[in-house]
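Hi again,

Forgot to attach this to my earlier email, sorry! This is the prediction with heme C bound. I've pasted everything inline since the attachment limit keeps bouncing my files.
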Amino acid sequence: MKETTKTALRASAVLAVALGLCVTVLTAADAKNPIKDAMAKYHKAPKGTDPACKKAGAGQCSKEELAGMVAAYKAMCAAKPPQGDQKKWVQLCTDLVNATAALEKGEDGASDKYKKAVNCKACHDEFKPAAKK
Ligand code: HEC
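Structure tokens for the complex follow:
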């Protein structure tokens, strides 16, 4: 094989790997899980700080935070949970959206409504797969 051909081959191999990497990164971003996103962003917080869901129930969330939560919960409604009944899933997520929207509007009783809707265990029991061993 001529030296130039070898160089060309090597260059295209490098290009192929680079392209492959790009595609992988893109698909990973596409396959983002709106449920995990909502959990990580609003139901979890670094040690020593309160997660948004706790602050929301206590009426301590900013309007911006609440708006973000409504959007995240809506995305959850549209997503498919890893397991469980889709109809019931949409119902639970809709409750969350409505309760958070009520908090955003400052409605009476919104706090209790939200605390009821954000019941971690009730939802996880049916829709979150048990931890893999
Ligand atoms: C309306 C349903 C629902 C409610 C309410 C809910 N979760 Fe989840 N949560 C899920 C589902 C479904 C998953 C699994 C997502 C997956 O594996 O794709 C999950 C996963 C998680 C995870 C793991 C995320 C990850 O990256 O694997 C954490 C942490 C979590 N939830 C925290 C909470 C906490 C804390 C609360 C209560 C304040 C809560 N969740 C309330 C549905 C819910």
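The pocket of heme C is lined by residues 33, 35-36, 39-40, 43-44, 53, 81-82, 92-93, 96, 118-120, 123-124, 127-129 (CB under 6 Å). Confidence is low (pLDDT under 50) at residues 25-29.

That should be everything now.

G.
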